[in-house]
Write a structure and sequence with these properties.
The protein has five helices and seven strands. The protein has about 160 residues and is α+β, with helices and mostly antiparallel strands. The strands form three sheets. It has a three-stranded antiparallel β-sheet with strand order 3-5-4. A hairpin with an 8-residue loop joins β4 and β5 (about 115).
């Protein structure tokens, strides 16, 4: 087994030299980044005929195809531990909750049209994946006891 760090002590009073161990490759793929997924989105949208904005599509199928390529949707992403998107219905429900879908009154035939803003959806995915839950307020901690609520105040610090 190789040493974790080599420490040499020069004869002078200088600090010892520490050589770092290389990072393990067993951690797998890196954490998804918004900038890399945004670049994927821009590349996917530039290859299709889209609105001037470039990241708006008008069908769930197209939105799902593009969004499924995002790293934040990958199997090793924190989002995959919080959310399972198994079918088209799951994707549609998640997109509708994101606030990225808007519906207009319709086209010339009266058929309603949808617009899915994929950059807004991407931001929602990252918020959903990496947002920390709100922390409890110490003075308002409550716990249930026999159907009632008991207020628990924090213990004073002992100095």
């Amino acid at each position: 087994m190789s040493p974790i760090a080599n420490i040499t002590s020069p004869s002078s009073s200088a600090s010892p030299v520490i050589q770092r161990r290389p990072r393990s490759s067993s951690f797998g793929a890196g954490t998804p980044t918004f900038s890399s997924d945004l670049a994927k989105l821009k590349a996917a949208c530039s290859s299709h005929d889209h609105d001037d904005n470039g990241s708006i599509v008008h069908s769930y199928s197209e939105a799902i195809t593009i969004a499924s390529s995002f790293d934040v949707m990958g199997s090793n992403s924190p989002l995959s531990r919080k959310l399972t998107l198994e079918g088209k219905e799951d994707w549609i429900e998640f997109m509708n909750k994101s606030g990225a879908v808007s519906r207009s009154s319709g086209d010339e035939d009266g058929n309603p049209t949808i617009s899915i803003h994929l950059e807004k959806f991407l931001r929602y995915c990252f918020d959903f994946a990496f947002k920390m839950p709100s922390s409890p307020k110490n003075r308002n901690k409550t716990c249930g006891v026999d159907g009632g609520v008991v207020r628990v105040s924090p213990l004073p610090l002992q100095v």
